[in-house]
Amino acid sequence: MQLDPITFEVLRNALGSMCDEGSEMIARLAYAPTISEGHDHSCALLTAEGRLVAHGNRDQAPHIGSFEPSVKVVKEWVGDNFEPGDIYIFNDPYSGGIHCNDVKLIRPIHHEGRLVAFNSSTGHWPDVGGALPGSFNPRAVDCYSEGLRMPPMRLFHDGALDRTVMTLIEYNMRTGRERIADIHAQRRAGALIEDRLLELYARHGAETVEALFEDIFDYTEERFRAQVSQLPDGEYEFEDYSDKDIMHPDEPRIRVHCRLTVDGDRASFDFRESDAAPVGPFGFPRASLETAVFDGTLHCFPQLAPLNHGLSRAVEVLSTPGSCVHIEEPTPASGYASGAYEKVAAVTMACWAAAFQDVNPARMYAAGINLANLCIGGVHPKTGKHYVNYLWNEGGQGARSYKDGNPFQMMIFIGGATNQPVEILERWYPLLYTNCEGVTDSCGDGTWRGGVGIDRSFRTLGAMTMTMHGDRAEVTPFGLAGGTNGGPNTLRLRRAASPEVEEELGMHAMGIRLAPGDRLIYRSNGGGGFGDPRVREPAAVLADVEQGWITRAKAERVYGVVLAGGNGAGDPLRIDEAATAERRAAAGTPARGYGPGEVHPLGRLLKAPGTGTGAQSQPS
Amino acid sequence: MSTAAEGRCFVLAIDVGGTFTDVIRHDTESGAVEVAKTASTPPDFIDGMLAGIEAVGAAPEAIALIKIGTTIATNTVIMRAGARTALVTTAGFTDVLHAARAARPTLYDSDWDPAPALVDRRDTMTVAQRTTYEGEVLEPLDEAGLRQVAARLRERGIEAVAVSFLHSYINDAHERRAQEILGDEMPAGYVCRSSDILPEIREFERTSTTVANAYLGPVLERYLASLLARLEQTGYAGPVLITHSGGGVMSIEAARRIPARICQSGPAAGVMAGAAIGRTADRPDVIVLDVGGTSADVSLSRRGRPLIRPEWNIEFNIVISFPSVDVTTIGAGGGSIARIDDGGVLKVGPESAGARPGPACYGQGGCAPTATDANLVLGRLGADTRLAGRVTLRSGLAEQAIDRIAGPLGYARAEAAAGILRVMRANMAGAIRLMSVKRGHDPRDFALVAFGGAGPLYAVELARELGIPEVIVPFRPGLGSAMGVLHVEVRHDFVQSIFATDERFDAGEINGAFAALEDRARARLERDGVAGGDVVLRREIDVRYYGQVSGGLTLQVGAGTLDDDDVHGLFRAFHQRHTEDYGYTLPEDLAELEIVNARVAAEARAATGAAPSFGANGAGEPGPSGRRRMFDETQGWVEAAVYQRTALPAGFEIPGPAIVEQLDSTTLLVPGSRARVDERFNLICTSG
């Protein structure tokens, strides 16, 4: 390191907090509810070469890894012609990563006439055009029905907004005019970061600040390599699947396969055995593959967060162009998050779990809830106004190798987001909720169990059109070391006209017309379990039943814990020790498979800490 | 408010902390002040308070008013020492409380767990009933079912019940009825309902606040009743006011009804102290730094008033949605421990050696290097300093502790100790930036008020780093919070939603909203013993671009009836402020403005008696009492003059490097800085 450790710590914190300030500024000024309510935005600082230095602490992980490739594209486009007061807008998924809704503003920062850094921010715009309101399109066959793709365009020159570019945007998306507010919000955040950075230049000098950038990368890379070198050399393999190829539901599920090679202090992720990209939306471009690998990696190396270029320097990622984790134009990208992104982050963490199991088993995490985006649109019967909104669910976190997963968590890859209050939703949209309640028994089971998912079912109070875009209704969040897979994401419909009939809508329902009084049963994944459920402490199983997380029947069937009592006051629930011992001795192993309650065929091979193996029987 | 009546001329301000209870006796006729510090006496803290009252020589018949700041409510929630509480909510909605907002504090941390809710999930009961967002009853309250629930809660020994139904903020009929039934069925129980505690939209925040209130209810009920009874036994039956989270005081009766409002009573006192110190030193815009043994509180005051935020998070996922002083607490205090992480980087805090074992130099068995050890090694604290008047510091132990990290860092001892202090200051500077810059305030426009035992040790260097021109160290830095209690007045905040835009508004509706809020405000103040000309009302209005969900600006509104021109004037003021703060306004077709809330802040007029005067100075010899070597970051070891604070007369000037010592704190003046004693005996330091 060039700087002394103290200056390093002080200045590094300064860079992080300027990004936090920028992100907060965006939320305060934006119009898009996806940004101001959903917090779906990020703000970062990069070097003049386009290397990521810092980002906001409550930003969205999928955005963060796309900053480097995006700035790279803009640099190729602009060459040496960046001028102070210029701001570029850009959102092409294939070169920059993620999807068209995530619109980036990129600002060059000059010090004494020299280009020294870039600020880039991303905001998830609520609509960027395309076939459907919201631009999510579960039946897209190409990117041309997913909204406006923007190459780097100079949106501001010398501080002034370019009318042609702005009008192009307005002409091509729903409520496009309102995006001026979001552009100003992102621009203002960039101005703030420029001011803060230049203050550091003025106080500490260019040499110190630029040495700091290099030190941050070295520090992260060295610490990462040092930790990797303590892991046993070898190959660690994992795979997971989508529910189906939406456009070809009869074909096999889409496979995401990852092989982690640890060799000394080097880590390499090879995804070349993953399936070819399907026709419909599932996959993501190469830049997002790297982001998802970094995301999963940081969960296993949390002391290395926040993400910066030092980590990207230390991790190799291999993929085949045209595969589902490396799509090319015009394969659709809008549904990447619940598709490839969630799978890659989860299998990355599972590969690390395998590498860590003999060294630090406290880095082993089963998979948790995945996204199920429910878009509704229509005319409000009371106000006569058009509305569009997204609904999403929190759900069960995967079990940790040393404790249970929590219920009611956002997906691990959108940690900065929150749920939406029922009372707010009912006020603005014609909905009447019937539930906000944990789904009993939805957890994956294990020595440590996953968190349960949530039931946020509702009735409609007006006619509307709905679209669902999600995954993990059939292939559910996997357990590890003999823990079972969690419960499914589900969406079912009971029509007001025939309430006794329950229709399974699944995770790729598009353009369903709903009548007033129809009821949507909308439930989320429970997290996967860890370790053999039959060795879970019986007292913990008893507490799970008392808390309502699992039923008595499940306690007996899966955990082999037989309870007695529970018939009112004076007869508390208690463990029947003898029956439990007998039951546990006689219990069989759960079936292998990818669905709820089954044991993931690769996941079961991992060892639970302190035992020879997770599954009680040896791998065959 | 007027307090001096019939020979009762003393106002007592009492701050009950975890370790010490401070009492200030203010004679409102002469301005004379007496202070006392006694040991706090948990669990009920009352003996310590009474001892303090006796120690300041306040006979009950001479006391006009007692004001108290207490951490008892804060500690009850933080230590999880509240009542076993149940929640009764709408059928189907068991997990509104337990899901909270499903948010996480950081991005990459699969190890993080939300704090357990204050109500166990098994004690979360549901009952059939449903009301719509417009207040229409879709399903009646299942009274028989509720009585069965009550029977189960009785069996379980539940002491307190929170009732929170969907949309009860607009129609409270079911909650009222449920409260009656539960009151009948559980006569010994404490029952509160969300429509009474926080009648606002957003089910999680309303429920969480109501649950916290129920959780505190029985504990505070017992405490406050016993406090009044004990005071009465001493012969005092006059008014007793308690500081609340919003930076005011309220009556004991109000605190018994809504105990969740006094959750931030302790920190609020410190925040109010900073604002008051700034006002008395004619610096209405101040950043306040209060550094104790384990943590530093940072707050900000503009035009003499602290920033208030709409809620307080007990834990990341547990919220009390009452206006609360905006204070950032970080783990940076005298006992903060320094260590080297696995990447070779020096970290300080948030772990603290606390009061036991305390810093290594206390000689109580602690061996980890702390900030206090670093200050001692660098001569910033004197070896003969007696922190808080008790412990004698031992340099040898501090040196050994610092050497534990100096070696691995490859530093000399002094460099390592200076490094610890730099990291500490960086953490404090981060908190100050969070409170100022992040909220759009430039620290260079503020003075820094520093108190608490350790605040004045860091303040001058911090000010220099942040470009803050002046530091104010009050005469008694160790009494900070009690000073705040002394200066705090009855204050309540009221808010009402308005649905209006700049294209469609009705000035009559806005006037009506303000009038209704002001009626409520006057009624509330009257219950707290404030009436007529002593009531001060201030109006504000929240305006934002139609389409912004969480942004917007709060604008001051004058008194009197608003006409259409006045309302348009508000919109013009919005555009001007927006341009000033953010550098743009939106194009006209997008720039529809929305009025969101009318706000009224109601306060009692400040006491009219003689201002408190701490002036016992100038008694001794004002010149240096000695000299000692002190380590300065840029100049290395320098010779610093040591002054005794109580000997310094008004107008006295001190050039740095110097150290100003007093019983409860030490002020450090680095080379190039200066200090002057003002006429109220504040030390006004310029960082140079």
What does this structure look like?
The complex is a heterodimer of chains A (620) and B (688). Chain A contains 14 helices and 24 strands. Chain A has 620 residues and is α+β, with helices and mostly antiparallel strands. Chain A has 2 domains: 218 residues, no CATH class; 257 residues, no CATH class. In chain A, the strands form 6 sheets. In chain A, strands 2-1-5-4-3-6-7 form a 7-stranded antiparallel sheet, sandwiched between helices. In chain A, strands 14-17-22-19-20 form a 5-stranded antiparallel sheet. The radius of gyration of chain A is 25 Å and the shape is globular. The two termini of chain A are 49 Å apart. Chain B has 688 residues and is an alpha+beta fold. Chain B folds into 5 domains: 109 residues, Nucleotidyltransferase, domain 5, CATH 3.30.420.40; 133 residues, Dna Topoisomerase Vi A Subunit, Chain: A, domain 2 (3-Layer(aba) Sandwich), CATH 3.40.1360; 89 residues, no CATH class; 114 residues, no CATH class; 61 residues, no CATH class. Helix content of chain B is 31%, strand content 28%. In chain B, the strands form 10 sheets. In chain B, strands 13, 14, 15, 20, 25, 26, 33, 36 and 37 form a 9-stranded mixed sheet that branches. Chain B is globular, with a radius of gyration of 27 Å. The relative contact order of chain B is 0.10. The N terminus of chain B is likely disordered. Classes of the chains: A alpha+beta (620), B alpha+beta (688).
